[in-house]
Amino acid sequence: MAYEKFRLLLDRSRELCFGAGAIFIFVNFVAIRQAVTPTHLLGRMTSTMRWLILTPAVPGALLGGWLGETVGLRAALLFAALGGLALTAVARRLPRIWAIRALPVYREPAPAAA
Question: Above 70 in pLDDT, residue 114?
Answer without folding.
Answer: no
